Amino acid sequence: MPNIVVVGTQWGDEGKGRIVDLISESVHVVARYQGGSNAGHTIVTDGETLVLHHIPSGILREGKLSVIGNGVVVDPKVLLEEIETIKSLGYKVDEDNLKLSDGAHIVMPYHKEIDIAREERMGSSKIGTTGRGIGPVYEDKAARRGIRFSDLIDPESFSVRLKATLEERNIYITRVFERNPLDFDRIYEDYTAYGKKLKPFVTDTSKVLNDAISQGKSILFEGAQGALLDVDFGTYPYVTSSNAGAGGACTGTGVSPTKIDLVMGVAKAYTTRVGEGPFPSEVSGDLGVKLRELGNEYGSTTGRPRRCGWFDSVALRYSAMVNGVSGLAITKLDVLSSLDKIKISVGYRYKGELLTEFPSSTEVLKHCTPVFEEMDGWQKELHNVKDISSLPSNARLYLDRIEETTGIPIWILSIGPSREKVIFIKDIFS
Ligand code: GDP
Ligand code: IMO
Ligand code: MG
User: Fold this and answer.
1) Which atom of ligand 1 is nearest the CA belonging to 331?
2) Pocket residue to mutate for ligand 2, from 225, 228, 268, 279, most atoms within 8 A of Cβ
3) Ligand 2 atom 13 nearest Cα
4) Which CATH class is domain 105-198?
5) Would you say the pTM of this structure is higher than 0.70?
6) Domain 267-424 falls in which CATH fold?
7) What is the DSSP string of 189-241?
8) What would be the CATH architecture of the domain defined by 4-100+202-264?
């Protein structure tokens, strides 16, 4: 059985949660490798809609192990709420089916304070973050002053590390942002209580995952965010602060690249982006609003309206290259059903020159305008389509064009948010 990375190939919200939920049925373990409560992965089952922030999208499948890896940054309050919500829906969540890395860093109140204050201060040059403290917690990780679960579950170690870090962060908060300092006792009390509740889940997850591989079990690695928000390969600085791409699966779990067999990319049949940053195939005006309404494109975490645009094969080819994507899951094809014309971006114009490769410079990308191909729509509902041969011919032509312009085959087609609205084109486990 292969070990698979499922990676978002655009700017997030591609439907990763929905695809991971589907294929988690066929694996033993699902592991999240980066991101934190900035992520919102939606799963729709039996009419219930559940949005997960930290917990892998395999948690609803009986008998599967869910792992939150060391690369994830965890807001313990949000995680505890998530556990309670899943339990209240009648699903099992306990230390047998959920493991939390002792090396995962903790999002602290000062991270959120700094994230929000910094965005306010940056004004029009802001990143448009989710305000969940993600940038500052990864900063602390790299600066070697972060607090990890191994500290949190040990009150003495937690007290020492919190004192040192808070002292420094309070200087920053008061001097740079002219805000009130945060109180040690309050944080210590709240967080030791969270630590106590989460302690049963905390373990060395790299050992858990490598043992599972040794026993012949298969692992599905679930990325949060999208590869174009990756801190190294995304549209920097308009990115998140971790490696959302496939490479993050190794550093974020402690599983070696030699153990990964396959990378599958998830892409929407069009494109969305939340927050600031270049987005060449963005559609403005009434059509942009129409796409948003048709696709219900509002952030799963913040509720912010998502910017919408056409499918961008230039960006996707780049994403597929840096992530080693061998096949695609295309989601939300049904959203385009009522449109009479549909476009695909197949190149960019930059200062009169035609670019067919995604530029590595964000400054260049900001000034690129897309070269679109226009295709006829199919104007038929897709909800009852059961196999690829029953798709309207224009929908098939559109998918063929996606495959031709990206050079990547489509393995899964999603035509609705619920579990049964899917067409498997290739059996990835064969
Ligand atoms: P993620 O962050 O990549 O997991 O994606 P989100 O959950 O933030 O956003 C995807 C949204 O699209 C969710 O509301 C899903 O329920 C919904 N969705 C996923 N696949 C499909 C699909 O094929 N068709 C439709 N109409 N909705 C879908
Ligand atoms: P999922 O996992 C879409 C975006 C923010 C902002 C940038 C940095 O649901 O796909 P951050 O709070 O991470 O410092 O914000 O990244 N962003 C997302 N956009 N979906 C997400 O998660 C995102 N997580 C972060 O909007 O532009
Ligand atoms: Mg999302």
Assistant:
1) 23
2) 225
3) 240
4) mainly alpha
5) yes
6) Adenylosuccinate Synthetase; Chain A, domain 3 (3.90.170)
7) HHHHHHHHHHGGGEE-HHHHHHHHHHTT--EEEE--S-GGG-TTTSSTTSS-S
8) 3-Layer(aba) Sandwich (3.40)
